[in-house]
Each structure stands twice: as structure tokens, then as C-alpha cells.
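Handout, section 4.2: multi-component inputs.
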Amino acid sequence: MNWLDRLLGKNETSGQVAKQRLQMVLIHDRADLPPGMLELIKDDIIQVIARHMAIDTDKVVVHLEQDTQENRLVAEIPLLAGRTRRNGASSR
Amino acid sequence: MSAQVLTVTSGKGGVGKTTVTANLASALAMLGKRVTAIDADIGLRNLDVVMGLENRIVYDLVDVVEGRCRLRQAMIKDKRQPELYLIPAAQTRDKNAVSPSDMVLICDQLREEMDYIVIDSPAGIERGFRNAVAPADKVLIVTNPEVSAVRDADRIIGLIEAEEKGPGQLILNRVKPAMVSRGDMLSVDDVLDILAVNLLGVIPEDERILVASNQGMPLVMHGVNGASAGEAFRNVARRLDGEDVPFLDLTPKQTLMGRLRALMGSNSN
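Output:
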């Protein structure tokens, strides 16, 4: 990293990049779930959920998280605004 | 007293397993211990040249396993030390010539006569790795501060635990303190954060390692002092022997120019 990068605020060293990449790779290695597989799972989840509710498919994020001892599959599925109460008092 | 079997392994090739094995075996012998080093890398024998014993090989590990010689006949004595021996790997056979139970048997035969048996594992996670780990009391995992090497070390740590040989002990090899201090290399703490394993040693990058292997005499035997790889290896040997030895201070010596360069960033060359 040179002084220009530092001035511009790109203050991430290659060592930090290495550490972050390693952490991501190892989460997947340890769970025996390659990142591409996660994308397929995401598509499946979207299909299933979309059958029942209106979701913002472009903003769905599925990723693995790691605690001290536990791996967790985390899905963030934003619902589409204003269309969540389909059975409510007829909106139209 | 029965010998302790130490297996040196890494997953990834080229991280310095053979160098670590040669130096640890020699350093333990220099502490007055009876040591046998075993090259378990069948087909790619190398520990012999790093230790400088290649010209004295008559029989090898596979000859012992297949009954062509007695165990003692395959043990090459390193005359520079009172009690240091090498059992070389076969060069023209493959890993399947030896089984994990063969390795256990050979080590059991040696246990009464030795204090330490140090096994150099081949790279990879297949038969050769399992051969090397089968007799182990303690597994030493060698890695470099590199994404690929640390990833493989993590895999090995998992496999060792699955074989109930854990917890592994980590030797972080080829650390360049100057690169770490400017943030361009994973630090010891970074690696320990990621791997969650016991740290046994940190070995600085040292050109003298190559000079030593050119000459066929492990660096620890050269008697260089100061914060060198040789000193770091001697410290690992003492830790293995139960001594509480502090880790070497590897922060780079700061010259005025060095400090200036660090300030300006290092990509300016």
C-alpha cells in the first residue's frame, strides 16, 4: 500500500484482504458448501417463498455465518413494500 | 522411557515440512536426545539430501516393510550428532508400498530405543499422509502466512481431529517481519485467529536455510545466533522438550530510512 492509497482512504492492506478472503473461504470449506451451491440454494429459496409472498427477489442475500462453534445459513429476504397484506381489508 | 512420535505435516506442498523435520530432529539431537527421523514421502525422497546423508543410503523404509533388511540396517547414523538417525524413503516405489499399520509397527519397534521419532509427511491428504499420521503422538502442522497454505492447514487440522490425533500444534514458517509490519503479510495473530490452534513456533524467512540445504547440513547445526531461523528451530525443539521458551521478537529493526520508507509506503520501488 503506498501513500497515495492511504491519502485516498483505501486503507486496506493486502494482509487484511488476505485475512478476509481466508475467513470466507474457510467458512465454506468447513461447512463443505461451495459458494456456487449457495447461489443455487438461494434460487430455490426465492422460488419457494415467492409462491407465498411478494418478495424483492433482486435483494435476497443468502450467506454463511460463523460463530465460535457454529455455522449458520442466513437468508435476508426483503418483502415488497405495500403488498404484504394480501388478505387484509381489500386494498383495491 | 518410551519415545514420542512427532509427525510434521502441512497439506500444501512447499511450505517447508522437510526443512522443519530436518532442523527439529537435529535440534532435539543437539539437546542430547536420541532421535530418529523418518522420511514418509515414498517416491519423492528428500529428507536425506536436506540432512546431507544421501550418499550413505543402502536400505530404505520399504525394504524394512517388505522384510529385505532389519530396521537397524535402514537407520543411517548422522555422525555429527551423538544419537541421530534417518530412515530414508524409497525413491522408486509409490505410497501404497507402506500402510498405516506398517508405520505404527516400525515406530513401536523404535520407541524403547529413542526419545523422539520425527516423521516427515508427504504433501496431500491421501495414503502418504495417513501413513505419517498413524503412529503420531503429536502432529506438527507447518504453514506459511499465505492464503492457500493456511487454507490447507485448516483442512489438515480438521482431519487430524477426525483421526483423534489432535489438537495439532502450529509452526508458522517463512514469516517476513518487514512485510507483516507494513501490512502486506498475514501476521501470527491473524493466522491464530483463523486457525484456532496451539502455536508451537514462528520461523522467520532466512536465506541461510537455503545455504544450509545446499550444503546438506541443517541450519541448527551451523550455530548461528540472534533472531535467525536456526534459533527459532532450536526454541521449538526446547518447547517440545517441555521447556517454556518465549517467542522470538521478530519486529524488524527500524532504521531511519526504513521508517521513512514505511511512512511513504513500500510500493514506491
